[in-house]
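Mods, move this if it's the wrong board.
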Amino acid sequence: MTPPESRPPAFLIIGGDGLIGDALVRKIRAESCTVLATSRRPATNDPDTLQFNLAGNTKDLFLDARIPALQKCGPLITFLAAAVTKIAECARDPQGSRLINVTNTITLARELLTSGSAVIFLSSNAVFSGNVPYPTDLTLPDPVTDYGRQKAEVEKALLAMHASIPEAPPLMIVRLTKVVARTSPLIGSWIENLQAGLPIDAFRDRRLSPISLRHTVDSLLKIAKSGKSGIYHVTGSCDLSYYDFARLLAEFLGVDADLVKPVAADANVSGLVQKNGALGQTRAGSALSLMPEEPAAAVTSLLS
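Not the wrong board. Structure tokens:
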């Protein structure tokens, strides 16, 4: 029998049908590793996807026979990628979003860590207000939205929990900036209209620090496979307005960048308004040589 420590890892993706979760599943399968994903939607015919709603009882996950079977395949690594991620939705329903984003996420993480699974928690640059440029792992969180406060609370709870578990498996907290993908509604509509020669509107007064889905997934798997606990930042190299990002997209599509029209965001438009969204390096990230992604590289990746 292959010694446990020499076996390749097995992966569990909580929220495997979301943008990042789905991309993780596809990448892991392409590497011929064992992976099981969860979805809150009704069960499909995919034997590697099980129905699990993070708004319900977290212990339900462990009632599925595929979970203990997965744990026998190799050292288990679990990505916590399920969450209510829309800032407006968290503000509109703080109690309901808190159940998923905080209470049950912490409970599930505890159950996973105590059962021997490494845990990668997907957090956000929303734990910072954006008043301080390029915050690091030494910068104290100062969230200004319900979503950001929820993420910051989970980070704090997980770090304390991990420290209290004797010989705990690795815990990685990964803060992400804005993930851009061709499949996201905004980017997809921009590309479709620009290629048709139609004008698009883009906010000149809202900023983002873009990272491609490919860069995000590659970074997450590099972090996971390192087995090194810590706080990591997967970030764009800088901030730019949505208008400037859309013009960059137009240029890479080979169309007239003047098709992009600058507009001001209405006061009712939801979203995280940060002067500085890009993140600085962390000690754990430096040890892995994690590098920020340039905007041009992010656009190239999402178009390829």
